[in-house]
Amino acid sequence: MSHTAHIPSHRKPRRSASKLALRAGVAGGVLGTIAVAGAAGPASAEPVTETIEMPTLGSLGTDLSSAVAASAEASQQEALDQSLEAQEAAALEKAAKEAKKAKAEAERKAEAERAEKARQEAEAKAEAERAAAEARAEAQARAARDSARTQLATTSASSDSGSGSDSGSGSSDDGGSSAGSSESTQVSSGTAASIVAFARAQVGDAYVTGGTGPNSWDCSGLVQAAYAAAGIDLPRISYQQSSMGTSVSLSNLQPGDVLYWGSRSGSYHVAIYVGGGKYVGAQNSSTGVVERSLDWDPPSGAVRIL
């Protein structure tokens, strides 16, 4: 190994011949151009000097960044505006749908209210007409009953003057009469006729427990009032009424006889036989005072009080 120190050379490297020739050519060309220009111009012309300032790289970068930022901000603002417009359009569409739905619901409710009001008015009108019809019927029935009662009072007054014939003979109303006498003849007799007429005049009245008239009755209250119209006093209770007089067969009934249901001394219902196989009685709260056939509710027995 050599101990000689390696000292680098400070000599500039020699340029190649081609590079030197190129540089000499360029320089020659430039000098030639200047010489031609000086020869062609006037001798007194002053050289024209103009300074052109070229932008620096730093200012170009700043302007470019500002332009990019402004463009990005403009794009972002445009996108935001478009988003807001889309939201407004969606909100308007939703509001329009909700308004349409609310209008339809309001119209439906209004129609339902009108229908309900019309129904209520129709029901009220029908109820008023029904009440008026019932009132007219009740007034007509009351007038008919009053007329019948007036006629009954007149008949009773005229029959009282001839009552001696009823008590003297004792044959026309008490089952001991001849078999040939008809029910029409029996009904025409004064006392029985008064009882039957009074009972029939109350048909249509209401049944009320404990009722004794003039427009509502229970069974024994009606029988007691009918006999009272003929001047005969009867007890108030049904089993007491059926214990009066004499027992008669259901096949030998006469108008005015008292029918009973249950045993004679323990009856729970009474009515008045009116002839023709029928009776009048205050039945129950559903029917009121009615005239029915014996077959509708056959009685247990009968008593004759006249």
- Shape category: rod-shaped
Helix content bin: 55-70%
- Sequence of strands across the biggest β-sheet: 3-8-4-5-6-7
Under CATH, the topology of the domain at 188-304 is which?
Answer: endopeptidase fold (from Nostoc punctiforme)
Q: How large is the share of residues in beta strands?
A: 5-15%
Total of helices: 7
Largest sheet: 6 strands, antiparallel
The level-1 CATH class of the domain at 188-304: Alpha Beta
Poorly predicted residue ranges: 159-188
Query: How many strand elements?
Result: 8
Q: In terms of structural class, how would the helical and strand content be classed?
A: alpha+beta
Task: Describe the overall structure.
The protein is of the alpha+beta class and 306 residues long. Among the domains are: 77-157; 188-304, endopeptidase domain like (from Nostoc punctiforme) (endopeptidase fold (from Nostoc punctiforme), Alpha-Beta Complex). Helices cover 55% and strands 13% of the residues. The chain is built from seven helices and eight strands; from the N terminus they run H-H-H-H-H-E-E-H-H-E-E-E-E-E-E. The protein has helices spanning 17-40, 57-160, 163-169, 183-188, 190-201, 219-229, 238-242, and strands spanning 206-207, 216-217, 246-248, 258-263, 266-275, 278-284, 288-293, 301-304. The strands form two sheets. It has a six-stranded antiparallel β-sheet. A two-stranded parallel sheet has the order 1-2. Helix 2 runs antiparallel to helix 5 (190-201) and helix 5 packs across helix 6 (219-229). The chain is rod-shaped and about 145 Å long. The termini are far apart. The model is unreliable at 159-188 (pLDDT under 50).
